[in-house]
TrEMBL record:
Keywords from the named record: Collagen, Secreted
Species whose genome carries this gene: Oryzias sinensis
Chief place where the protein resides: secreted
One cellular component (GO) term of this entry: extracellular region
Domain Fibrillar collagen NC1: 1-112
UniProt protein name: Fibrillar collagen NC1 domain-containing protein
The keyword Secreted belongs to this UniProt entry's keyword annotation: yes
Length: 112
């Protein structure tokens, strides 16, 4: 990993949260506090979260649709500090309840 970091000027990665009746980013039925809870920790231990300089770009937010079907929220991380990626830890993902399910799909890192 160190070799890739040394040779790269920037990096990008995407993470998709697949959800069934479970809001991920902030939508109907979630408070502002719940919206900004999800945090992503990078390789160099910096935190990506809503409302900070390292805020992930939300490309798609369909998890707010709670109609009994599977939907997804997609987060994209792009940085000019390649040592911030890959994402190594995700904290405070909205918890699943009996009628709610979710799973995470971690995409590969592209070092440029």
């Amino acid at each position: 990993m160190k070799f890739l970091h040394l040779l790269s000027n920037e990096a990008s990665q995407s993470i998709t949260l697949h959800c069934l009746n479970n809001a991920a980013v902030g939508s109907i039925g979630t408070t502002h506090r719940e919206m900004s809870r999800i945090r992503f920790h990078g390789w160099n231990k910096q935190t990506f979260e809503k409302g900070t300089l390292l805020e992930p770009h939300v490309v798609q937010d369909e998890c707010k649709i709670q109609d009994g079907s599977w939907h997804q929220s997609r987060f994209v991380f792009h940085t000019q500090d390649s040592q911030q990626l890959p994402i190594v830890d995700i904290q405070e993902v909205p918890s699943s309840q009996l009628d709610r399910q979710q799973h995470m799909e971690i995409g590969p890192v592209c070092f440029l």
